[in-house]
């Protein structure tokens, strides 16, 4: 009996505590927040100690070597037969169709054949033929061209002029064959300048072997420059043409490599311009092959200087040809360099 009474007291106390906990106002503030850890001294002091230090597994002997190699796990299932299809692709697709349809999201064919009238009525935007899009085509009222008018009539309307200018720029910056045309032009004139310079060098050496002392001829710097620049330019033009079409695009390659090629074009422009100035100087020099003067008067004091190559028609003709070829080649170099820079800027444009 005393045990039954004690048990009933415990049950009544727990019931009272639970009822008081349930009847407690949830909006009543508490003095200590629930996330604060209260150290009232009833906790185990061992819980406040630092965790034990982790130690690696150590053995008193060397572990046996492992023969595991990546990718060799399924060698016993591989065969020496090549992975070729034993049947057409359509047959393989038909083989997997029931498996695909048995899934949770079956896909059934819902296509049907319609006539041209239905397409015209429901999808009229699919009937027009394809035409290239004019990038950045301005809307009405945004034209910047003025056109050309004569006696109140348009010879070239502003719309036509704007469209022509945009077509020209798109052709210059987007067409892949424009750099090829100018590279081939530069290559042809560089080869021509190299050939003319080498032929002129041979003719001058032949004239210097003449027994007549008055028929001696000195080689000018333009001849050496034409040979040296042409010899370096030909392999460079071949490489830069290959790089233009076969290398990685600008976003996947080093920017420094592309800038270096542009700087090489600029270097060749500088050397070609200096070579042209030397060739023109030799062409108009009274002491050289194009003038029949054994002495040239230089300066205001009338100082006479002996000629270095008096009246050699063959050398003079080739010097004129070399000057003309170098002039056209320099123009081609400048245009090629300008187009290369514009195309790189167009590719790097943020919009």
TrEMBL record:
One GO CC annotation: fungal-type vacuole
Protein name (Swiss-Prot/TrEMBL): Uncharacterized protein
Stretches for region Disordered: 1-76
Domain of life: Eukaryota
Keywords recorded for this protein, A-Z: Membrane, Transmembrane, Transmembrane helix
Membrane-traversing stretches: 180-201, 221-239, 259-278, 321-345
Keyword presence, Membrane: yes
Compositionally biased region (Low complexity): 12-23
